[in-house]
Automatic annotation (TrEMBL):
GO terms for cellular component: membrane. Residues 38-118 form the LITAF domain. Keywords: Membrane, Metal-binding, Transmembrane, Transmembrane helix, Zinc. It is a peripheral membrane protein. The keyword Iron does not apply. InterPro entries: LITAF, LITAF_fam. GO terms for molecular function: zinc ion binding. The lineage of its organism: Eukaryota, Viridiplantae, Streptophyta, Embryophyta, Tracheophyta. Belongs to the CDIP1/LITAF family. It holds the Pfam family zf-LITAF-like. The chain crosses the membrane at residues 73-93. This is LITAF domain-containing protein. It comes from Cannabis sativa (Hemp). It is found in: Membrane.
Length: 140
């Protein structure tokens, strides 16, 4: 081989990111600096709204605290209820809270601040993750 010719295995491709390991935060791991519960004056950069009440600073009234969560039936919960309906009963809908839409409201002014909708119709219950905990990331 001549000096001017290069083998494709000699150099990595420039401009293409290479990760040796999977990013744990993209896989759903909660950051160690996450805020749970009432933020108590902690400036919040971003709040992740999920199945549980989330710490937040209200844009409407300015109060900080935990959201109140209301649930609404989703299409995924209805489809999950159809299986036992073939046996003549529908006992899973209320207990399949992990498949219901969640709407977050400010406890002070009652304004809707966020929603967490379950849009995957083919969602299957995952018992270790029935509730996905809400959290906030503090401002740096």
């Amino acid at each position: 081989m001549k000096e001017t010719e290069m083998s494709k295995t000699d150099e990595p491709v420039v401009g293409v990111p290479y990760y040796a390991h999977q990013n744990p935060y993209q896989a759903g791991m909660i950051p160690p600096n996450a805020v749970f519960g009432d933020p108590k004056g902690v400036p919040i950069q971003q709040t992740i709204y999920r199945d549980t009440p989330a710490p937040f600073n209200c844009l409407y009234c300015g109060n900080s605290g935990l959201t109140t969560v209301r649930s609404k039936l989703s299409l995924a919960a209805i489809i999950g209820c159809m299986m036992p309906m073939m046996l003549g009963i529908c006992f899973l809908c209320p207990s399949m809270d992990c498949l219901w839409h969640k709407y977050h409201f400010c406890p002070s002014c009652k304004e809707k601040v966020a929603d967490y909708e379950k849009l995957d119709v083919c969602a299957v219950m995952d018992p270790p993750h029935w509730t996905q905990e809400s959290f906030a990331l503090p401002a740096v």
